[in-house]
Amino acid sequence: MTADPTHILKTVYGYESFRGRQAEIVDHVIAGHNAFVLMPTGGGKSLCYQIPALCRPGLGLIVSPLIALMADQVAALKQAGIRAAALNSNLPPEARQAIWRAMGNGSLDILYVSPETLLRPTVLDRLKQVPLSLVAIDEAHCLSQWGHDFRPHYRQLDALVTEFPDTPRMALTATADAPTRAEIIAHLDISEGDSFIAGFDRPNIHYAIEEKDNPRRQLQRFLEKHKDESGIVYCLSKRKTDETAAWLQSQGYNALAYHAGMDREAREANQTRFQREEAVIMVATIAFGMGIDKPDVRFVAHLDLPGSIEAYYQETGRAGRDGLPSEAMMLYGFDDIALRRRFIDESDASDQRKRMEMQKLDTLLGLAETAQCRRQVLLNYFGDHCEPCGNCDTCANPPERFDGSIAVQKALSCIYRTGERFGQAYIVSVLLGADDERIARFGHDQISTYGIGKEHDQRTWRSILRQMVAHGFVDVDFSGHGGLSISERGAQFLREKPTLMLRVPRPAAKGKNRRSSG
Ligand code: ADP
Ligand code: ZN
Predict the structure, then answer these.
(1) What ipTM describes this predicted complex?
(2) Which ligand sits closest to the CA of 205?
(3) Of 196, 237, 292, 437, which is most buried with the most CB atoms under 10 A?
(4) Atom 19, ligand 1: which residue's CA is nearest?
(5) What is the enclosing helix (H) or strand (E) of 354?
(6) Smallest Cα–Cα separation from 254: which of 216, 281, 275?
(7) Helix or strand or coil: residue 484?
(8) Residue nearest to ligand 1 atom 25, measured at CA
(9) What does the pLDDT profile of the chain (518 residues) look like in tens digits?
(10) Which residues contact ligand 1 via a Cβ below 6 A?
(11) Ligand 1 centre from 48 Cα, in Å?
(12) Strands 484-486 and 474-476
């Protein structure tokens, strides 16, 4: 029973053609390979496992966390004429028997199963007696201990590697930053080369990131381009949210506030108005986000640094769902950065967690400081790629740059010579030839890269290293000590030594107290 995937797509699902990388993924799995699939919500992940499950002989096993979700999927599949069922702990014994029978005589195509049910020895034994076409793990980020959605049973799914060594494994998710991604594929023993990442580009969104100078004036200038349009202005604190909304109202804008400090009715009333009315500006903390379903949000402005690149991507992603041109603008200042670092430092998180948060902050700063196309940096973070987009501020107005080729070579070589396990602060100290007890203890004051970076100061080196992360030349060990190692691309850079322009870091802010507030 080898069926043609395109034929199934048309006859069973009624779709004309595959979308994005679906066809590639389907072929890859039909050929018997593992796959890690990262696509945004709505990207079309289900077909990526359902069609190979139908094309390959045997039963397709789909691990899914939510019983309600399984029931929906099974109902939809049955409607399309596919023989599907769901196995979970709520099932009465007769229904369970019926599933075993169908499995035994080969009249079941797809079986959804919860991880806790799947991992029962009796269930595993049953499954070992039938041929399996594939095992797909949906919402695979649930196995990540760092994620917001950790489920201990998901963690144990690595048992599938040993229980069904010859069955292709798929892991699918919509939310996976670099560390989570690495954790998933390592845990399920899927190789890097079997990763499919796609669909993150939002080509209709224009990205711009500016340093704070006079934030209110900068916001006003931005809003002038969006008269009579709806958008979101994100602030870090509740107080600033209220103040900014009041100020915008005083300037004649139809602005509303939304934050967790407001009572529920007021908050919901504002959300409803935003949803229904035209030309409304919602000034909000990140509490505003869930359940926004407004296709014509034309702009998203961040008056403070967002929490991370993922947060930035999610929050800006609320603009332009209708596909029409939209704009994202972010302001950031040195004070924000210092404040963020203090937040992390003073939180009660574990040291490891704190280090990871610091690295994520640095990655975000890499995006802010880059001389490269913003979209390239953003997509690179998710493991996706694009050409310079022509639809961001750095593409339109290349920032002041300097030839950073030699500096990057020096930094890469320093990372290499110190064993690819130290964090950026250490690498910078070695490059500057710092008189440091740790450096002496490791003998790194004896290596050739000790003190070879004196032409730049510490601030510049830190910026160079962040830009190297943004370029994807170094990988950051987020879940360990933030150690830097040389990526495939970094190794290629060292081999080919191309010219590389980097953004000139701004001098440290002196003489504050500009006439600005907010
Ligand atoms: P995800 O699981 O990635 O969030 P789904 O698999 O639920 O996304 O797909 C989202 C929607 O897109 C569904 O309505 C699905 O039927 C539709 N869809 C997926 N692939 C295609 C395609 N190739 N052509 C048309 N519609 C598709
Ligand atoms: Zn660009």
Answers:
(1) 0.98
(2) 2
(3) 196
(4) 44
(5) helix 351-369
(6) 281
(7) strand
(8) 15
(9) 457 999 999 999 999 999 989 999 999 999 999 999 999 888 899 999 999 999 999 999 999 988 888 999 999 999 999 999 999 888 899 999 999 999 999 999 999 999 999 999 999 999 999 999 999 999 999 998 876 788 999 999 999 999 999 999 999 998 777 778 889 999 999 998 999 998 889 999 999 999 888 899 999 999 999 999 999 999 999 999 999 999 999 999 999 999 999 999 999 999 999 999 999 999 999 999 877 889 999 999 999 999 889 889 989 999 998 999 999 999 987 667 777 877 888 899 888 888 888 888 888 988 998 889 999 999 988 888 889 999 999 999 999 889 999 999 999 999 999 999 998 899 999 999 999 999 999 999 999 999 999 999 998 998 899 888 877 788 877 666 778 999 888 999 999 999 999 988 866 554 443 333 33
(10) 15, 18-19, 22, 39, 41-47
(11) 9
(12) antiparallel
Looking up tokens 């879940």 gives 479
What CA–CA distance (Å, rounded) separates 38 from 144?
Answer: 14
19 Cα–ligand 1 center, Å: 9
Q: How far is CA 408 from CA 341, 360, 499, in A?
A: 26, 21, 10
- How far is ligand 2, taken at its centre, from the CA of residue 70, in Å? 40
